[in-house]
Structures are given as structure tokens and as C-alpha cells.
Amino acid sequence: MHFKRIYIEITNNCNLNCSFCAKSNREKKEMTLSEFHHVLQEIAPYTNNIYLHVKGEPLLHSHLDEILTYCDNFNMKVNITTNGTLLKEKAKMLRKHSSLSHLYLSLHSENNKENYLQDIFIETAKFSKKVTIIYRFWTLENGKINSKIANILEKMREYYNLGNEKMKELKTTKNIKISENIYVDKADLFEWPKTSLSNKEDGHCLGGKTHVAILSDGTVVPCCLDDDGIISLGNIFKQSFAEIINGSRFQNLRNSFENNKAIEPLCQKCTYKARF
Questions:
Q1: How far apart are CA 112 and CA 73, in angstroms?
Q2: Mean per-residue pLDDT over the chain, rounded
Q3: For FRET with 5, which of 65, 78, 164, 226 sits at 20 to 30 Å CA-CA?
């Protein structure tokens, strides 16, 4: 069994409190270095592509430099999604690690940091062209950008000296390249699965097929939208990863989606699967 990617939540702490992000009831925790090293050892036979988040701001981790060194040594491809508020402080450290493959910057975050965009534009320009930079706007409504996003796109036009045609394309196209290794990705705001939503048993999902997620406390879940660990497949600090993914709950979930059925209650209430 091979996964295209595995999400590893190195911390569920965040320095922002954005309205579009579901509030979690879990205790705040960051993985220790020994815990993270253990996770890498367990998942190495199953993927070489990891995302260092589920919830939380990964740049907050107190030992991020050492974590990335472990990833370098394991020849992992590392994807980091960040709100960008700490990028100026952490960018030099990030740039020295060969494992860093993609840096996703959620420019739709709700913050009042001074020189926020300018700092991001300046720092991303210093990264190797081997690192893909993706400016992310995931708060569209029915494909339409709001005034805040429009303002950011205008500042992006000025900084990257984008012409009128490119600017028009930037506003209307979901995914667009604006520089050699820099892209803009736009998507509609999604709804986090929650118990108050109505059931829909039919549906296909890639959770458990192309990816799984590991929460900061070691709980393994089928996708990164199960931020509270409701579909606990096991705990990687107590069981082997092989045991977890060969367990009956994981296999039943995976097989059910192959038959276009959602058997887990949380999956039945998830509207994201409609995107597949």
C-alpha cells in the first residue's frame, strides 16, 4: 500500500483564530522530536511525501529546524502550509533544508500583521526555484472573490508587475502561474464535517486511499478534515502504522468508498466528498 501523501500534525497550536477554521476540542500539543522521528520511521515504507499540518501553524513548532533535518535524512518531500505571519522570522532556516518541496501560504488568513504581504513577497523570492510557492485563497463564495482578496491580488499585481491580461486571468482562473515557481490557488470556502449536518451515505472520497493524517497526539485518521480524531483508526505511538492500516476499521472505510458508500458517521455528514 502506498499513499500519495501523509499529513503529520507536528503541532495543533496556532497564533491566529480565523473564523473559517473549525474550532477543535483537542488539547494543545506539539510532537516531540522523538515522536516525530518515530512517525517518520513508521511511514517511510508507505510514502515519501508529507504535509506538516492538519490543524495548527507548523512554523510555531519549537524544534522545526530539527524536524526538517530528520526529513532531509529520510529523503522526504515536505509540504508546509502556513498563514505566513512567521515567514520572515523562519524563512532563512526553511531555505537551508533540501526536503522542503512546497510552501503553501494561506493569504486568506485573518491577521493584522504590519507589512504582512510585503514580507511574504520578499521572502518567497529568496527561495530556490526548486521550491514551489503557492499563494492560497480558499475563501471564495461560489467562485467569486471578496473585497479583501481583490485588494491582495491588486498588491500582488503591483509587486510582480502583472499586465492587465494577466491580472484578469488572476481574478478569474482558479489556478495560475505568476512567476517561475510561484502560483496562485483559489477555491471556495469548504464546510468542515460536523454532527449537525444531514447524512448522505452515497459518495466517494480519497481519504484512506491517496492519503491519511496523523494528529499531534498520534491518532491516525483517514483525512485532514477529521481534526478532532473522531474516526480514530489507531494511535501510531501505541501501534505500528502497518497494524493500523491493515485494521478492519481502515479497510472497511477504504473499501466502502470504492463502492461509493460512506460508512463512518462523520463521513456521511461531510460535504467535501461531493467535490470528488
A1: 37
A2: 95
A3: 65
Separation of CA 76 from chain center: 16
pLDDT of residue 163: 94
Handedness of CA 24, 25, 26, 28 (dihedral sign): positive
The pLDDT value given to residue 24: 85
124 against 202, higher pLDDT: 124
Give the pLDDT band of residue 191 (cuts 50, 70, 90).
Answer: confident
The rounded distance, in Å, linking the Cα atoms of 184 and 126 is 18
Can you tell me whether residue 11 is helix, strand or coil?
A: strand
Chain position carrying cell 473564523: 19
Q: Which tens digits make up the pLDDT trace of 106-149?
A: 999 999 999 999 999 999 999 999 999 999 999 999 999 999 99
Residue 100, Cβ neighbours under 10 Å: how many? Answer: 23
- Report the residue count for the chain: 276
Query: In DSSP terms, which residues pair with 51 in a beta bridge?
Result: 7, 79
For residue 78, which phi and psi values (nearest 5 degrees)? -105, 130
What grid cell was written down for 62? 519549537
Question: What's the grid cell of residue 140?
Answer: 471564495
The set of cell numbers assigned to 76 is 522526504
How far apart, in Å, are the Cα atoms of 35 and each of 30, 122, 221, 238?
A: 10, 34, 17, 11
Cell numbers representing residue 30 in the block: 506539539
Of 148, 176, 144, 173, the closest CA to residue 160 belongs to 176
